[in-house]
Write a structure and sequence with these properties.
heterodimer, A: alpha/beta, elongated, B: 5-stranded mixed β-sheet, 12 helices, 12 strands
Chain lengths: ~220, ~475
């Protein structure tokens, strides 16, 4: 899952990035409203964390403009403004959740999970295809009752696949949702990681779940 | 209506005064009229009595008195009862209308008559009819020969007076009643705005200080009161807003380091880290803690300054020396940032009456500020000179404050400069031209506000001249207290 953090305070942005990356999210930082808005328009994020008091373009304005572009990405506002008026203004401008600083990091993570879950119909904290399960909370991956050890990137990749079952995912889509901004799209990193993942979840199991669509990308399905 | 209300008191006074006036007027009217009517009756009685007494015919004590009067004097006194007595009081002739009644004569009247004096009496002994009786002695050759008594009924007079009394007794209280109602109405009308003011004032709390009392159309005492009230509420509103803004700013300033501390520690504790990572986090934490204590210290200083708790320790001090010391002290910081700090101070020592410690703090803040916002290769120039503004006649107070000699300190840098629209605000608490940059540079956001306080505590003034991209100059003027201190 790829997250954009728009926050001008560098130290805050840094620890959020570090904490999220350790939870297998791909994180981009933007330090002002202008670049944040630009990045939100150019890239496809699964979630945006937004501070309100940011330079160049005010956070509320960024929020309005993102929504004005018919972009329904979940947005979590993270700010020191904690009056009821501020919270109402933020929610009315189109954010999905509001967290005031200073905040509990555990709560922050739980809220992000909840926001990402909203996209799904069943809202289960566990993703499931055939006998493969992935827990979004504990990050445990099991196939046929057996736990599978995955690296951070492999986990992110699998989560993306399992969130979009029976859908053809191009290499670009995969790179955009699993890797951050510094990803070099000219390499075959996506193929390499898909092969790693295949070896761990499909080797020795039936049915195979990851299938190659030649010239296009990959698909995850039961058969 | 409350008995202690202004409306009640006003009405009461009004009715009281009007009552006194009306009652005195009525009494005067009644008594004057009564006196005048009675005198009228007396005068008529006397002239008739004189007339009768002067007539020689009356000397004869026989015959019909009415006929005699009519024939000899052509008199037909209607409604007058006349009798003539001899000198000892025995009845002689009398008018027909007396029939068989004799007019009473008092002992006193008889005595007076014997001395030749006229007596007027009011008597009710006959049918309880009020009669005014004149007892008039007829004097011939200094002897009282006869007494003429004439009576006239006072019924008419008393009727008039009774009617008048009745009218007064009814009209005066009703007039007072109407007046008191009218007075209440007028007082109510006049005091209604006061009630409105009370209502509004009661409703205004710290939550709705934007409310105002509706001004009146006319300009009178009440409208001036309303204006004054509204101005007071405006001032309250403004200072409440300032306090709110300040506390929200202060809490925001403190929340940022808190968020960093909490977040960094929480993220770090989620996993086992290398000791290097731990060290890095602790260092970063320390930075934030230092920043917080700086903010708290500065806030405390300013709040003490606001309440006047800080006393300046003013003495004769050598300003030149202090400034030179600060420049030497700050040189290290400037060098480490690759900025040149220099002073051009050709003036002999300048002495000033001030607090050396605070002035040192002022110069440190200004120079530090300059160093922070100047890029590598730039320079900070500190200049101290003496200025004199001759008193100008008929000028504003602002000029008056600059009268006499002052020390002028200019700290100019070749830094990033301050935009015109921000120049007025930089002395405000927590105002930052560039939030992110100023945090990176450290500092509480209160430094220039403290500078302003120090300068103003020395009766001086501070201002900034700046151009974006070229640099800023902070100009401080501090009055020297007396020329004697100059060497």
């Amino acid at each position: 899952m790829r997250v954009l953090v728009i926050e001008d305070e560098k130290k805050v942005a840094n620890f959020i990035k570090k904490g999220l990356e350790e939870e297998h999210y791909a994180v981009d930082n933007a330090y002002d409203g202008e670049s944040g808005l630009y990045m939100a328009e150019v890239n496809e994020y699964d979630l945006i964390v937004l501070d309100l008091m940011i330079p160049k373009i005010d956070g509320l304005e960024v929020l309005k403009r993102i929504r004005g572009n018919r972009n329904n990405v979940p947005i979590l506002v993270l700010t020191a403004k904690d009056t009821v008026e501020d919270i109402v203004r933020g929610l009315d401008a189109g954010c999905d959740d509001y967290l005031t600083k200073p905040f509990e990091f555990l709560e922050f993570l739980a809220r992000i999970r909840a926001l990402l879950r909203r996209e799904k119909v069943d809202k289960e904290p566990v993703l499931k295809i055939a006998d493969l399960t992935l827990s979004l909370v504990t990050h445990k991956v099991m196939r046929r009752g057996k736990e599978i050890e995955l690296t951070g990137k492999e986990y992110s990749l699998l989560e993306y696949f399992m969130r979009n079952p029976d859908k053809v995912l191009t290499r670009t889509m995969i790179s955009e949702h699993v890797w951050d901004y510094h990803f070099d799209s000219m390499t075959n990193v996506v193929d390499v990681y898909v092969n790693y993942l295949r070896r761990k979840i499909d080797k020795g199991f039936e049915p195979k779940l990851i299938h190659t669509i030649r010239g296009v990308g990959y698909i995850m399905k039961r058969d | 209506m409350h008995f202690r209300s202004l409306r009640f008191k006003l009405t009461l006074w009004y009715v009281l005064i009007l009552g006194i006036l009306l009652i005195s007027f009525s009494s005067l009217l009644y008594f004057t009229l009564s006196k005048s009517l009675h005198r009228d009756v007396d005068n008529k009685l006397r002239s008739l009595a004189e007339h009768i007494a002067s007539d020689p015919l009356s000397k004869y004590g026989f015959g019909n008195l009415d006929q005699t009067l009519e024939s000899s004097m052509n008199l037909k006194p209607i409604g007058k009862f006349i009798q003539v007595l001899d000198e000892s009081g025995h009845l002689g002739r009398k008018s027909d209308n007396l029939k068989n009644i004799q007019l009473p004569i008092s002992l006193n009247a008889l005595k007076n008559a014997s001395k030749g004096l006229i007596t007027f009496e009011t008597n009710r002994s006959i049918d309880n009819t009020p009669l005014r009786i004149i007892t008039f002695p007829v004097v011939e050759h200094s002897n009282v020969t006869k007494i003429v008594q004439i009576a006239s009924s006072l019924e008419g007079v008393e009727d008039v007076l009774n009617k008048l009394f009745l009218i007064l007794i009814i009209t005066v209280p009703s007039a007072l009643l109407v007046a008191s109602l009218g007075g209440q109405f007028l007082a109510h009308k006049a005091l209604k705005p006061v009630d409105d003011i009370t209502q509004t004032a009661r409703m205004i709390t710290s939550k709705n200080l934007n409310q105002r009392i509706n001004p009146l159309k006319v300009k009178d005492e009440i409208s001036r009161l309303i204006e004054t009230f509204n101005e007071m509420i405006s001032r309250l509103d403004q200072s409440f807003r300032q306090i709110k803004q300040f506390s929200s700013d202060a809490s925001h300033e403190l929340k940022t380091p808190l968020t960093i501390l909490k977040g960094e520690v929480e993220v770090t504790l989620r996993k086992e880290r290398t000791s290097q990572e731990y060290q890095q986090i602790l260092k970063s934490n320390l930075e934030e803690i230092n920043r917080m204590s700086l903010i708290v210290e500065d806030l405390l200083l300013l709040s003490k300054a606001d309440t006047g708790e800080i006393r300046l320790n003013k003495k004769d001090i050598n300003l030149t020396e202090i400034l030179n010391e600060v420049v030497v002290q700050m040189d290290r910081l400037a060098k480490s940032k690759g900025v040149r700090l220099y002073t051009s101070n050709h003036h002999p020592d300048i002495f000033i009456f001030g607090d050396g410690l605070r002035l040192r703090e002022l110069f440190i803040n200004l120079i530090e500020n300059g160093i922070k916002y100047t890029e590598v290769g730039g320079s900070i120039h500190v200049l101290l000179e003496k200025g004199y503004v001759p008193p100008v006649d008929g000028q504003s107070k602002l000029v008056e404050r600059e009268e006499g000699e002052f020390a002028k300190i200019i700290v100019s840098d070749t830094g990033i400069g301050i935009a015109k629209e921000d120049q007025g605000k930089i002395f405000n608490r927590f105002f930052r031209v560039d939030k992110a940059r100023s945090r990176e540079q450290g500092g509480s956001g209160l430094g220039l506000n403290i500078c302003k306080w120090i300068v103003e505590a020395h009766q001086g003034e501070i201002k900034v001249e700046s151009e974006l991209g070229k640099g800023s100059s902070f100009i401080v003027k501090l009055p020297l207290t007396s020329p004697r201190m100059n060497i």
